[in-house]
Design goal:
The protein has 135 residues and is mainly alpha-helical. It contains five helices and no strands. It comes from Arachis hypogaea.
Protein backbone atom coordinates (compact mmCIF):
# COMPACT_ATOMS: atom_id res chain seq x y z
CA UNK A 1 0.00 0.00 0.00
CA UNK A 2 1.43 3.39 -0.98
CA UNK A 3 0.71 6.42 1.14
CA UNK A 4 1.92 9.97 0.97
CA UNK A 5 2.62 12.72 3.47
CA UNK A 6 -0.20 15.23 3.49
CA UNK A 7 -2.44 12.92 1.49
CA UNK A 8 -2.50 14.81 -1.80
CA UNK A 9 0.82 13.88 -3.41
CA UNK A 10 0.53 12.08 -6.71
CA UNK A 11 3.97 10.46 -6.35
CA UNK A 12 3.92 7.12 -4.47
CA UNK A 13 6.17 6.86 -1.46
CA UNK A 14 9.02 4.37 -1.47
CA UNK A 15 8.94 1.48 0.96
CA UNK A 16 10.81 2.16 4.19
CA UNK A 17 13.47 -0.48 3.41
CA UNK A 18 14.44 1.22 0.14
CA UNK A 19 15.91 4.71 -0.18
CA UNK A 20 13.59 7.27 -1.72
CA UNK A 21 14.46 9.28 -4.83
CA UNK A 22 15.47 12.32 -2.82
CA UNK A 23 17.58 10.41 -0.29
CA UNK A 24 19.65 8.68 -2.97
CA UNK A 25 20.61 12.02 -4.58
CA UNK A 26 21.64 13.90 -1.44
CA UNK A 27 24.52 13.84 0.98
CA UNK A 28 23.60 11.76 4.03
CA UNK A 29 24.39 12.54 7.64
CA UNK A 30 24.22 16.32 7.28
CA UNK A 31 21.79 16.67 10.20
CA UNK A 32 23.09 13.73 12.23
CA UNK A 33 24.23 15.61 15.37
CA UNK A 34 21.16 17.86 15.47
CA UNK A 35 18.82 14.89 15.06
CA UNK A 36 20.60 12.94 17.79
CA UNK A 37 20.07 15.88 20.17
CA UNK A 38 16.45 16.27 19.11
CA UNK A 39 15.78 12.55 19.50
CA UNK A 40 17.31 12.64 22.99
CA UNK A 41 15.20 15.69 23.83
CA UNK A 42 12.09 13.75 22.84
CA UNK A 43 12.99 10.79 25.08
CA UNK A 44 15.34 8.61 23.03
CA UNK A 45 18.70 7.30 24.18
CA UNK A 46 21.52 9.90 24.44
CA UNK A 47 23.34 7.98 21.69
CA UNK A 48 20.66 6.55 19.39
CA UNK A 49 21.50 3.91 16.81
CA UNK A 50 22.97 5.35 13.60
CA UNK A 51 20.27 3.50 11.65
CA UNK A 52 17.56 5.27 13.67
CA UNK A 53 19.13 8.66 13.05
CA UNK A 54 19.51 7.91 9.33
CA UNK A 55 15.86 6.82 9.12
CA UNK A 56 14.69 9.96 10.92
CA UNK A 57 16.81 12.07 8.58
CA UNK A 58 15.32 10.37 5.52
CA UNK A 59 11.78 10.90 6.80
CA UNK A 60 12.38 14.56 7.67
CA UNK A 61 14.17 15.40 4.43
CA UNK A 62 11.42 13.71 2.43
CA UNK A 63 8.72 15.60 4.35
CA UNK A 64 10.42 18.97 3.95
CA UNK A 65 11.13 18.32 0.26
CA UNK A 66 7.48 17.47 -0.40
CA UNK A 67 6.35 20.52 1.57
CA UNK A 68 8.64 22.81 -0.43
CA UNK A 69 7.47 21.33 -3.74
CA UNK A 70 3.84 21.86 -2.75
CA UNK A 71 4.62 25.43 -1.68
CA UNK A 72 6.37 26.02 -5.01
CA UNK A 73 3.26 24.81 -6.82
CA UNK A 74 1.12 27.24 -4.84
CA UNK A 75 3.63 30.08 -5.25
CA UNK A 76 4.02 29.57 -8.97
CA UNK A 77 0.39 30.60 -9.42
CA UNK A 78 1.37 34.06 -8.12
CA UNK A 79 4.85 34.00 -9.57
CA UNK A 80 6.78 33.91 -6.29
CA UNK A 81 7.26 31.73 -3.23
CA UNK A 82 6.40 33.28 0.13
CA UNK A 83 6.08 32.36 3.80
CA UNK A 84 2.30 32.46 3.43
CA UNK A 85 2.49 29.51 1.02
CA UNK A 86 3.98 27.38 3.80
CA UNK A 87 1.51 28.67 6.37
CA UNK A 88 -1.30 27.78 3.99
CA UNK A 89 -0.01 24.20 3.70
CA UNK A 90 0.15 23.67 7.46
CA UNK A 91 -3.06 25.57 8.27
CA UNK A 92 -4.86 22.42 9.46
CA UNK A 93 -2.02 21.33 11.77
CA UNK A 94 -2.57 23.84 14.58
CA UNK A 95 0.52 23.02 16.69
CA UNK A 96 2.79 23.52 13.67
CA UNK A 97 0.93 26.63 12.57
CA UNK A 98 1.08 28.17 16.04
CA UNK A 99 4.78 27.39 16.39
CA UNK A 100 5.54 28.86 12.95
CA UNK A 101 3.63 32.06 13.66
CA UNK A 102 5.39 32.34 17.03
CA UNK A 103 8.81 31.94 15.40
CA UNK A 104 7.93 34.43 12.67
CA UNK A 105 6.83 37.05 15.21
CA UNK A 106 10.00 36.48 17.25
CA UNK A 107 12.02 36.93 14.06
CA UNK A 108 10.28 40.26 13.42
CA UNK A 109 10.99 41.37 16.99
CA UNK A 110 14.67 40.47 16.58
CA UNK A 111 14.85 42.41 13.31
CA UNK A 112 13.36 45.47 14.99
CA UNK A 113 15.73 45.16 17.96
CA UNK A 114 18.75 44.87 15.64
CA UNK A 115 17.57 47.92 13.71
CA UNK A 116 17.21 49.97 16.91
CA UNK A 117 20.57 48.72 18.20
CA UNK A 118 22.34 49.59 14.94
CA UNK A 119 20.81 53.07 14.82
CA UNK A 120 21.75 53.68 18.50
CA UNK A 121 25.25 52.43 17.83
CA UNK A 122 25.58 54.78 14.85
CA UNK A 123 24.37 57.73 16.96
CA UNK A 124 26.94 56.91 19.67
CA UNK A 125 29.69 56.66 17.09
CA UNK A 126 28.80 60.13 15.75
CA UNK A 127 28.75 61.59 19.28
CA UNK A 128 32.20 60.21 20.07
CA UNK A 129 33.61 61.38 16.75
CA UNK A 130 32.45 64.95 17.50
CA UNK A 131 33.79 64.88 21.10
CA UNK A 132 37.28 63.66 20.15
CA UNK A 133 39.76 66.51 19.54
CA UNK A 134 41.49 66.52 16.19
CA UNK A 135 45.32 66.70 16.45
Amino acid sequence: MNSSVGGSSSKPRAASSQPSETSSKRKRGVFQKELQHMMYGFGDDPNPLPESVALMEDIIVEYVTELVHKAQDIGSQRGKLSVEDFLYLIRKDLPKLNRCTELLSMNEELKQARKVFESDEEKLRKVFEVDEPVE
